[in-house]
Design goal:
- The protein is an all-alpha fold.
- The protein is 81% helix and 0% strand.
- It is globular, with a radius of gyration of 18 Å.
- The model has no long low-confidence stretch (mean pLDDT 92).
- Pfam families: DmsC.
């Protein structure tokens, strides 16, 4: 529980990147209109700003963020900081050319840049934690869970904001992969840190129960149609909380290999 700023930073940032991606793809294949894409981009940008603000609490002093950039190219943490900044900058530019200086071509280019650097940002996060001296983190499961948050968190937000088909598909794929790999992940942790991993059972159980429940609830709400917006909002919050719970468990696994 000692890394809560990073918990929120990673989960919200990955969910924002997923929302940008799914909303943009939905617009390209004609599943959402300009108004829905605009709203999705606004929510994704606000989500990422909140992620950065909470993540800054881990740094302590805001100016230390710039010190983190000194190792770009050789330090995974510096790469993550740089890519998060570029991601936010493109997100801001997208809204600038959508809402204020209305220019469709520039808005489109910036939206594409936001999606690309959002994915690059998500890619950079597990690079920080794949550390050989932390056996519980030094595994493909670290990378996997970061990308699955993009799918389930971003998917839940996309469903709420109108990109329902791709959002539901992304959420389904992410949730199924989480369930399919959890036994292998727990088995791996049983070898690298059995005691500390056993202490995370409550966090993982909450995550899995919520995701399982959403697999049934979300399709039922989508079937109901327009009257389910408020309930879909509650579902999106529940999914984010589930991913936060799973991420708390991940950070609690920190343990230096002796």
């Amino acid at each position: 529980m000692h890394e809560l700023p990073l918990v929120f930073f990673t989960v919200l940032g990955q969910s924002a990147a997923g929302l940008y991606l799914l909303a943009y793809l939905s617009k390209k294949i004609g599943m959402v209109d300009e108004y829905q894409l605009r709203n999705a981009n606004i929510v994704a940008f606000i989500t990422m700003i909140i992620a950065l603000a909470l993540g800054a609490l881990h740094v302590g002093q805001p100016l230390r963020f710039f010190n983190m950039l000194l190792g770009v190219g050789r330090s995974p943490m510096s790469n993550e900081a740089l890519l998060s900044g570029i991601f936010v900058a493109f997100g801001a530019a997208t809204l600038l050319f959508t809402l204020f200086i209305k220019n469709k071509a520039l808005s489109e280019l910036c939206n594409i840049g936001t999606v690309i650097f959002g994915l690059a940002f998500v890619w950079s996060i597990p690079q920080v934690y794949n550390i050989a001296t932390v056996a519980n983190w030094f595994t493909v499961f670290t990378t996997l869970q970061m990308w699955m948050t993009l799918l389930v968190g971003g998917g839940a937000l996309a469903i709420l904001l109108g990109a329902q088909r791709l959002g539901a598909l992304a959420f389904l794929i992410g949730a199924v992969i989480i369930f399919a790999t959890r036994a292998a992940y727990v088995s791996f942790l049983g070898e690298t840190g059995p005691e500390i991993s056993a202490e995370q059972a409550g966090f993982w159980s909450f995550q899995l129960v919520v995701l399982a429940l959403m697999l049934f609830v979300v399709p039922a709400l989508l079937y109901r149609g327009r009257n389910s917006t408020a309930l879909l909002g509650i579902c999106a919050i529940a999914v984010i909380l589930a991913e936060l719970s799973g991420r708390i468990a991940f950070y609690n696994l920190w343990q230096i290999t002796m």
